[in-house]
Design brief:
With about 190 residues, this protein is mostly helical. It is built from nine helices and no strands.
């Protein structure tokens, strides 16, 4: 990233550390065994997913030169905006769950008023931002990374998994679903 986006203090070594951090996070997030798969199979799957998902960062680090300024700015805005969204949403959720008076209730304030999963939407923005950075240097083939992350966030380990049984645990969740977008933030619908 430091090679593409010319930010003071972020060079190739820092970008490489970021890549290792992100691929390590991906592996940790997917650490649960997959339907009886043995540890070696699970490790191979995690390594393959980490390699595919980190493709835009790999391309950016290995790029011979900078990307066009517009692509740098757009990609950086998506990454930084996504990190901010994810951090704010996670902080709002942590404060809500720490408040014992909220037990069994639905968080529908702050960013959660506009999306049932604003933290996942923030992560979505981060991965698409990395792709924009890579596409700026001609690595359009790395689109497989944000597409894969989008499927994982929307259909596999994110939204669909969390919403599978949450209505049973939170009585007001059905009403929340009726008036709040699942993923992409937007205005509330009338109840």
């Amino acid at each position: 990233i430091g090679r593409i986006v010319k930010v003071p203090g972020i060079g190739k070594k820092t970008a490489e550390r970021l890549l290792l951090e992100l691929t390590g996070k991906l592996g940790a997030d997917m650490g649960a065994p997959l339907g009886g798969a043995n540890d070696a199979q699970n490790d191979i799957l995690q390594a393959l997913l980490a390699f595919v998902v980190s493709a835009p960062l790999q391309a950016a680090i290995l790029a011979p030169g900078p990307a066009p300024l517009f692509m740098d700015l757009l990609g950086a805005a998506l990454v930084l905006g996504g990190i901010a969204l994810e951090a704010i949403a996670d902080a709002q959720l942590a404060a809500f769950t720490a408040d014992g008076a909220q037990r069994g209730k639905v968080l529908d304030r702050g960013l959660w008023r506009y999306s049932r999963h604003p933290n996942y939407f923030g992560e979505f923005c981060v991965w698409w931002g990395f792709f924009v950075l890579a596409a700026g240097i001609g690595a359009w083939w790395t689109i497989v990374s944000p597409l894969l992350m989008s499927v994982l966030l929307l259909r596999v380990s994110g939204v669909s998994l969390l919403e599978k049984d949450i209505g049973e645990r939170r009585p007001g969740y059905a009403e929340y679903i009726a008036r709040t977008n699942a993923f992409f933030p937007g205005p509330r619908r009338p109840a």
